[in-house]
Amino acid sequence: MGQARASRRRRRAGSALLAFACAARMALSAGALAALPVAAVADSQPAVRAYEIPAGSLEDVLARFGHEAGILLSFRPELTAGLRSEGLHGQYDVDDGLAALLAGAGILAARQANGSYMLMRTATAAAHPAAPLPPVTVVSRAEQDSAPYAGGQVARGGTLGVLGTDSVMDVPFSTMNYTARLLADQQARTLADVVMNEASVRMLTSTGGFGETYQIRGYNLSSGDVGVNGLFGLASGSRMPAMIAERVEVLKGPGTLMNGISPGGSIGGSINIVTKRAGDEPLTRLSTTWQSGNQPGMQADIGRRFGPDNAWGVRINAAYRDGEGSIKGGHQDVGAGTLALDYRAARLRWSLDAYTQRENSRNFRPQVGFLTDVASIPQAPAADVNFFPDNRLRLNDDAVLTRLDYDISDTLSAYAALGYRHGATWQNLPTGSVDSNGAGTALNGYYDTYSKTVTADAGLRMQLDAGGVQHTIALGLTRLQQEAGNAYIEAPATNAYSIYAQSPLTPITAERTAPRKSYDMILDSLTLTDSMSLLEGRLRLFAGARRQAVRYDSYDTIAGGLLSAYNAAAVSPLWGVVVKPDERLSLYANYTAGLTRGTVVPTGMINVGQILPPYRSRQIEAGVKVDWGRLATNVSVFEIANPSEVITNLPTTPTTSLFSYDGDQRNRGLELSAYGEALPGLRLLASGTFYDARLKRTADGANDGRNAPGIPKRTFNLAADWDAPWLRGLAFNARMVYTSPVWFNAANTLSLPAWTRWDIGARYQARLAGRATVLRLNVENLFNRNYWLLDNPYATVAAPRTVLLSAQVDF
């Protein structure tokens, strides 16, 4: 019977490996992979792996270690009775992991001939040689706070601008910090693929479009508002490649006090990318990728440390994809590269990051508007067909940033960061609105842009103990200076079209012109905060204020000359409290307010490119966080208020609509989330958000009390990642993303329907031909549903079913 079971296991392993190998087009032959016996695969597992095993009884901790290490441990229960363990955190091989767990317990682990381990008590300390202790690596508090939580998909903490790095359990905010492991296992291509794992975050644009717009707690956040290592203005205005990120941090709620004003004025939350750094172990990783629509690609990730104590580090990442992609008859040529240098010493830390991105697309996914007199929203067309044929997009992004941290003393540190970015896009961008039947009039045009940004951040942090209260006082200064320009050239005439068919666009006969400056903007801020810890950390108080100033000059891009200018300044307060009756329970609340740069008017409006006046926003939030050991949960309620954006006089042609403010928008919500490891080998990401978003003080009270456009009543996410017990290294994953209907207009007469997206995937990790290898398969939008995504005033069809394959090999 045992031989029969082994034979069946061999057959299953061979079939799975063969399927993955063929799909990923690996250099290894499929026949060789299929012939590998299970025993050989198991014996060739990596010697060192990461562990995040919490403290508990020694028996439970050893059982957990044995499961994760894939070994058999034999011992009598009385051997470990009454003994506790502090758990295991870090990277170990099997022998060193056992040595660390059993150190001081008077127990030895003896390896048996069959590869299992037997535990036995030592008669005396001298009766046996001492168990070897693993090397001890001292890490900073910041590194501990940002270490992976159970399951490895989410970090324990993240950065909060001027407040520094801290654990999620110790701050009065709602945050989510995704790790590089999650990005790799989900085969994230851009930042959008990462942040959609949380119900409070939704994408308003589709994969394969001209750019990415996010929504956090019901408010828009453009790609240009994403932070890079805490600095705004350095992210691409279109999309950011995921390969750059070691961690993606999402802060829900206004973050102007922590990070300053973002270039686009987002208030619902912020997203920060923490770039990759070289680890202590050398890394040479190559990956082949393939996306449905016949789009193959390659990725490289190389890291080294050198010099005394490995003080110097270099990390290089590069990726390239070229092929049709998700639109029939289209073509996408995408490349990106990053360089990260760093130096670390006892008191000094320095880093330099640079990235470049190039994209050239033909037939990218278009947007469409809806006419004011439309009776109903037309059904979404097929997502793999471009109803504006032969539209084109070319984008270039280049950025460099550097940061220096210096510990002046044990209680005083200083930091400074400086960055520069230049970005440009060239677009053949048709626009048009349609009726209930999906028919309308299109206007073809060139829309080219550029932006140049210089951004800086500097400050001091001081720790002191006064009267039993531990203070962390931070003083910070930020400055962002940005120049942007555009050029819009229209075709001589419009043409009729339908979103359900491809109709030739009217050619553009005018000569393409270089973009001219549309605005100059300077955002300054000065911040002072005090984070106080009392009662041995059971009570934490946060208080601070940031003085923010906005200066904005608007220019005529056709005739030239200054159109308008304004200066505004305000003081933004922050208070927060965290109460921890137990180390694993946090009760928190916060209040923030801030000055926000006005909204940039989108294309298709008569006042396109105009930046509306700055405005004040405020948030109040309260919640409960519980760390159950290997599963963390969070419940929060919030209210955010700011001016409401409306479109008036929306016509049958797309160039005479006016974009402006009208009254206030008040978003209230309830958030529920859970993440971690629900069971051994079962990782979960689950969340739900319930909104009550209302309009207040609208013109003549016409829309008072109505639902704010573009915000769903309910959103849900549920993702599971499961290690298959019958074959070591094999795992399966699935994800469900649901969004309820959203109103299109302030009068609440038109709505876009609800949608549900299902994703599935699998991966196999082993040593093949002596190399650590990971084969991955992911299918997004499994049932190929066509549905609208609303980025008011335009809508985009979500991407169709997309298959992603990759083969990752470490050399």
Task: Tell me what you see in this structure.
α4 (58-69) packs antiparallel against α6. The longest helix is centred in the first third of the chain and has 23 residues, at 2-24. The protein folds into three domains: 1-40; 45-137, 3-Layer(bab) Sandwich (Phage tail protein beta-alpha-beta fold), CATH 3.55.50; 273-506 and 516-810, Maltoporin, Chain A. Helix content is 10%, strand content 52%. With 811 residues, it is mainly β.
Summarize the structure.
This protein is mainly beta. It has ten helices and 46 strands.
Number of separate structural domains: 3
CATH superfamily label of the largest domain: TonB-dependent receptor, beta-barrel domain
Instruction: Specify Rg, calculated over alpha carbons.
Output: 28 Å
Proportion of residues in helical segments: under 10%
What's the count of strands? Answer: 46
Low-confidence sequence ranges: 1-46, 124-139, 650-655
Number of H/I helices: 10
Shape: globular
- The first-level CATH class name of the largest domain: Mainly Beta
| Main sheet: strands, sense, barrel | 22 strands, antiparallel, barrel
Please state the average pLDDT score: 84
Straight-line distance between termini: 39 Å
